[in-house]
Structure formats: structure tokens, C-alpha cells
Amino acid sequence: MKTEQVGDSILETWTVDEVQEAFDKNEIVLIDVRTPQEYMFEHIEGALLMPLAFFKAAKLPGQTEKRIVFHCGSGVRSEKVARASIEAGFAKIAHMEGGFGAWKGAKKPYIGTNMATGAPHQVS
């Protein structure tokens, strides 16, 4: 994990392995900031959707029990949202380095779309 001091807050950048381990242990809330279309085509099972275009930091869940980790396609949008969350007063916020592309590249499980039927299916 990489950390960056941003004012009085800390921005964390997590690897896909760190995200998967914490997510599997139910220690984090994983929030996908891609578009609804991107999410419907393929997404990490159990990740919440809060698209960048509609992002409102005040609507985020509290962090008393679980850390919030954002992800997008490549890590650019999630870092932008993480920084906006810090500006809104969150003390510790994280995003996933490399985004969903890195998740898929590391062969992590996700929900994809069967191109023959259009139905969602588990990809391992």
C-alpha cells in the first residue's frame, strides 16, 4: 500500500491483492466509480456503484467499521473521487491502483457478460 499525506488526511493506494484480501474478509466497502454501462458489462461482485458523474461525497457511508476503497477502469477516476472525498472531510480514503484493468490482469474473479446470451456470468 502506498500512502500520501493530503493536508490532515491520508490517501491510500491499494494493490489488487490488498483489495481482494480485505474485500474477502468484509473489511472494506468497495465502490466502483465507472459508468453504469461499464458496471453492467463487467464488475467485481459485491462492489457498489457510485459513478463519477453523480458522485456526492456527503452520501458516502461512514467509516467507523469499514474503510472505503474506490476503483474505476484504470485508477484515474478513482483517485479523483478519493481526493474529492478527502476534500469533503474524510480522514482516510483509498483507491485501487490500476483499477478494474489491473484486477482482470491479475486474474481476480468478477462478473462478466456472456456475449452469446447477454447474461451475466462468473469469470474466474
From TrEMBL:
Q: Which InterPro entries match?
A: Rhodanese-like_dom, Rhodanese-like_dom_sf
Q: Give residue ranges for domain Rhodanese.
A: 24-112
Gene3D superfamilies assigned to the protein according to its UniProt record, in alphabetical order: Rhodanese-like domain (3.40.250.10)
Q: Which domain of life is it from?
A: Bacteria
**Descriptive protein name:** Rhodanese family protein
Task: Say which species the protein is native to.
Answer: Salipiger bermudensis (strain DSM 26914 / JCM 13377 / KCTC 12554 / HTCC2601) (Pelagibaca bermudensis)
Pfam name, any one: Rhodanese
Question: Taxonomic lineage of this organism?
Answer: Bacteria, Pseudomonadati, Pseudomonadota, Alphaproteobacteria, Rhodobacterales
CDD domains named in the record: RHOD
Q: PROSITE patterns, per this entry? A: RHODANESE_3
Q: Name one GO molecular function term.
A: thiosulfate-cyanide sulfurtransferase activity
